[in-house]
Amino acid sequence: MRIQIKSSNNKANKLTYKAIFLAAVCLFVFVLVFSLVYISNYFYESYCFEKEQESLSVLLGKLNFSDFNSDLTPPVYNTPDVYPVETPPAVETPPPITPTPPPVYYPDFEWPQDIAIGNNGIFKEYEVLAGINKDFKGWIYVPNTNIDYPIMQGKDNSYYLRRTFYKTWLRQGSIFLDYRNDTAFTNNDNYILYGHNTKDGTMFYDLTKYKNYDFFKNNRYIYVNSLSQQFVYEVFSVFITPSKDFYYLYKNFSNDKHFYDYIESVKDISIMFNEDISLMPSDRLLTLSTCTYERLGNYSLNRLVVLAKLVDVH
After folding, report:
1. 3-state DSSP of 124-178
2. Any residues with CB less than 8 A from the CB of 7 and at least 6 apart, and which?
3. pTM (2 decimals)?
4. 286: closest CA among 150, 142, 161?
5. Distance from C-alpha of 34 to C-alpha of 14, rounded to nearest angstrom
6. 101-131 b/e (C-beta count within 10 Å ≥ 16 → b)
7. Catalytic residue status for 26
8. Hey, is 294 helix, strand or coil?
9. Angle at 70 between CA 66 and CA 73, to 5 degrees
10. Of the candidates 194, 167, 166, which has an alpha carbon nearest to the alpha carbon of residue 181?
11. Catalytic residue of the set 60, 128, 184, 291
12. Burial class (CB in 10 A: 0-12, 13-18, 19+), 19
C-alpha cells in the first residue's frame, strides 16, 4: 500500500496566498467604497453650495452687481486740491490752470441708481442678509469671473474657511474678511479677503486668471460693498509666494518707509505689476489671497495674491 503524505509547506503556502487574496479584495472594496463616497460627497456639496448661492440671490434681489440698471454718469476720480505745474520758459505766461481729470468709466459695471440706507444705517438690500447672519459684512464682485459673493467675518480666520453664509459646513467655505480689519473699509491701510481656490471653479478660483497678462490688463477693477458704502479698487500687482517666506498680511503700515519698502518687495516678486499706477502711503489697499499649487522651491502649497488700491468711493 502506498501512502501519500501532504506537505505542510504546501498547505501553509495556500493559506498565505488565500490570505493575500482576501486582503487585496478587501482593500479594493474599501478603496472603491471610499472613492464613491468621496465623489458623491463632492457633487453633493457642490449642489448644496449652488442652492445656497441661488437663495442669496433671491434674498438680495439681484444676481450680481452687473444687474443694476442706471442712467447715472459713471463716477469720477476725486480731484486733488493742488496739481504740480511746470513753469514754461517764456517770460510772459498766463496763470497756470489746474487740469481736470477726465471721467473714469469702469467697464462691465454701472452704479445702481439708488441704494437706499435703511433705519439701521445699512443698505436696505442688505438688511435681510444682515438679519440672518450678523457676520455678513458686504459683497465682492470681480467682472468676467465667478467672484460674486457675500463677505463674511468671523472672530478668527478659521471659522469661515469651511462654513458658508448659512454656517453650513461645506468645503467651499466663504469669502471672508480678516478678523483684524474693521468692517467700514475706511480705517485700515490694507483690507484682506481670503477665499479657497476650489477645483469646481467657485470662490477665489478665478483669481488664477490674473496670471494671464491680457486678463490682468483688461480687468483692472474690483468692486466691494460694505454694508453702507461702495468701493472701487484698481489691481496693480499679482504675485505667488510661500506664506512663510513673505509676509503680506499687514493691516496697517507703521510709517511711510514701511509702506514703500513693502511695495518694493511686492514689485520684486510680482508676476504682474502695473507701474503706471501711482502708490502713496495714503492709499488704501485691498489684498485678495488664495492658495495655489504651483511649486516654488521646496514648497508645493503657496499663496496667489492679488493687490489693488482704492480709486473711488460711492
Report:
1. HHHHHHHHHCCCEEEEEECCCCCCEEEEECCCCCCHHHCECCCCCECCCCCEEEC
2. none
3. 0.71
4. 142
5. 30
6. eeeeebeebebbeebeeeeeebbebbeebbe
7. no
8. coil
9. 110
10. 194
11. 291
12. exposed
- The SS3 assignment for 17 reads helix
Distances (CA, A) of 220 to 19, 43, 110, 217, 310: 63, 33, 15, 6, 12
> What's the Cα-to-Cα distance from 106 to each of 60, 131, 234, 286, rounded to whole Å?
23, 32, 10, 18
- CA 171 to CA 38: how far, in whole Å? 12
Q: How far apart are CA 48 and CA 44, in angstroms?
A: 6
Task: Give the tens place of pLDDT for each residue, 117-135.
Answer: 777 788 888 999 999 999 9
Distance CA 192, CA 285 (A): 9
For residue range 198-244, what is the model confidence (pLDDT) as tens digits? 888 899 999 999 999 999 999 999 999 999 999 999 999 999 998 77
Question: If you write DSSP's letter for every residue of 205-222 in order, what string do you get?
Answer: GGGGGGGSHHHHHH--EE
Instruction: Give the DSSP letter of residue 298.
Output: T
